[in-house]
Amino acid sequence: MSAPLLTPLRRIHTPNGDVLHGMKASDAGYAGFGEAYFSMVAGGATKGWKRHFRMTLNLVCIAGAVRFVVYGEAEQLLDVTLSPSSPERYRRLTVPPMLWVGFRGETAGDNVILNVASIPHDPAEAETIDLSRFPWPDGEGG
User: Fold this and answer.
1) Please, what sign has the CA dihedral across residues 51, 5, 61, 116?
2) C-beta separation of 26 from 89 below 8 A
3) What is the C-alpha to C-alpha distance for residues 40 and 20, in angstroms, rounded to an integer?
4) Is residue 88 a contact partner of residue 6, using CB atoms and an 8 Å limit?
């Protein structure tokens, strides 16, 4: 896989609170399990640009709304906003290795992302560059 992948996720309504699907080993985009972790991004804050050399990211927004922008070496590949509050935006974003990703919190307060990573965190297998390297698109994504 060399392109980002968006996968719609199931939301199962129950009387006392919904169940939100995240990922199964049989899902498209699953590339093994290394660890699962949560990232928080404040409303209006932007994190990035980061790319992993070996890790596949499987990103699900579990609180708030988060806008993701993905670049190849020179071209924008994807601009999408994920949120559990909207059925059409409750999706998983799979980012394969060697793509640049940045993300921004779109709602006030903390916005929370779950990453089901294909390998355990290793600071030597990723690089981060200044946000000015690629333009952050204007307008609303996805």
Assistant:
1) negative
2) no
3) 19
4) no
For residue 2, what pLDDT is reported? 85
**What CA–CA distances, in Å, run from 128 to 15, 68, 69, 125?**
43, 15, 14, 11
**Cα–Cα distance list, 121 to 66, 116, 141 (Å):** 22, 11, 28
- Write the pLDDT tens digit of every residue in 67-81: 999 999 889 999 999
The model's pTM is 0.92
CA 48 to each of CA 59, 68, 69: distance values in angstroms, whole numbers, following the listed order:
14, 10, 9
Task: Find residue 76's DSSP bridge partners.
Answer: 71
Q: Which residue has the tokens 């993905």?
A: 70
Model pLDDT for residues 89-123, shown as the tens digit of each residue: 999 999 999 999 999 999 999 999 999 999 999 99
Tokens of 16: 């006392």
Encoded tokens for 37: 């972790």
